[in-house]
Amino acid sequence: MQATDFILSDSPEPHRERTKKLLKQHPEVRTLISRNPLSFFLVLSVVAFQTGIAFLLKDSPWWLALLVAYAVGAFANHMAFVLVHECAHNLIFRSKAANILTGIFMDFPIVVPSSVSFRSYHLKHHSFQGDYYLDADLVSRWEARLVGSTFLGKALWLLFFPLFQGLRPPRLKEIKFFNAWTVLNWITVFAYDAAVIVMFGPVSFLYLVASFFFSIGLHPLGARWIQEHYLTSPPQETYSYYGPVNILSLNVGFHNEHHDLPSVPWNKLPQMKQIAPEMYDTLLWHRSYVRLLWRFLTDRNLSLFSRILRTNRAGEAVEAVV
Asked: Quick one: CA dihedral 284, 288, 292, 294, positive or negative?
């Protein structure tokens, strides 16, 4: 039977309580709270790598650009998104401005200016997980109804995932979309896009665009969005992924750990699990993105409505979502 709404809950989100418990039982975990300025060199490397591959493909047929994007570019772009995520949490430099500028630079090979807006929406996701008006990670109701629970519907949703995600901000009226940083983000990234098209040609740009879509869409890497908060084993609300892709995606699979202590940089997240195994080994986790992607596409009991929707905000009742 196809779900017609989210799973409603008036309980607080699970991470605040576990964070308190974690800090009480393992105060040594505080030593992991830090920044990793070496991540900046990864930013430089990914920008250089993607730009270099785009240059090498400039005289290639379009189909080769798509193939390389699926096999190589998607992984590089996914790492780029993780580094943008690090910047959003100020985990590279102490200066907020330096992190924002680094995120904007990391946006160049992503080809879509999203770093600054992602920062605004993602931090609200941490504070208000499951709140329909403040959590951009939660799909819109019309989106879930349109996609449904069929293989084709969910496959198309993943294929065009960036477009669906870009249609959510109007629902989140309390979050300011534009500011001066946003303007800078748009100008510089679109200037990079134009330079690639003029200097390298359309096939090079096609490679970058395809890398962008594959890195977060209809690709095993796209299963990350299902892994993090979709109720594959309810009532657990957040899931980690402990598999080999974490090597290339900078431990982004350690999602319970990240939500419990967002101030821990990517390179130290595995240490959280080592310090407090009793807290994380008892949770369910995913081992394979390929298996999870196949399950999501084929299991009619899993849909975009397979998420927790909070009926309270910070413990206070909010008006029902229609």
From this structure: negative
Quick check: helix, strand or coil at residue 316?
strand
Contact 70, 214 (CB under 8 A): yes
Distances (CA, A) of 6 to 70, 273, 294, 310, 317: 32, 30, 22, 9, 17
Domain membership flag for residue 298? yes
Look at the pTM and tell me if it is higher than 0.85.
yes
Overall domain count for the chain = 1
Give the integer Cα–Cα distance in Å for 296 and 153.
11
Residue 174 in any domain: the answer is yes
Evaluate whether residue 1 is within a structural domain: no
Using only the alpha carbons of the chain, give its radius of gyration. Answer: 19
Which residues lie closer than 8 Å to 43 by C-beta, 6 or more apart? 83, 92, 102, 105, 106
CA distances (Å), 70 to each of 17, 53, 225, 291, in order? Answer: 40, 13, 18, 18
Residue 37: give the domain boundaries. Answer: 7-313
- Give the SS3 label for residue 315: coil
Instruction: Judge contact between 105 and 43, C-beta under 8 A.
Output: yes
Prior bond to 202 cis, omega within 30? no
Q: Alpha-carbon distance 272 to 26, whole Å? A: 10
- 241-244: long-range pairs with CB below 8 Å, 24+: 241/285, 241/286, 241/287, 241/289, 242/285, 242/286, 242/287, 243/286, 243/287, 243/288, 243/289
Tens of pLDDT, residues 197-245: 999 999 999 999 999 999 999 999 999 999 999 999 999 999 999 999 9
Backbone torsions φ then ψ of 316, nearest 5 degrees: -110, 140
Q: What is the pLDDT of residues 281-308, one digit of tens each?
A: 999 999 999 999 999 999 999 999 999 9
Taking the mean position of all CA atoms in its chain, how far away is CA 45?
20
Q: State the DSSP H helix or E strand holding residue 142, giving kind and residue range, or none if neither.
A: helix 141-147
How many whole angstroms separate alpha carbon 94 and alpha carbon 116?
Answer: 17
Residue 303 lies in a domain: yes
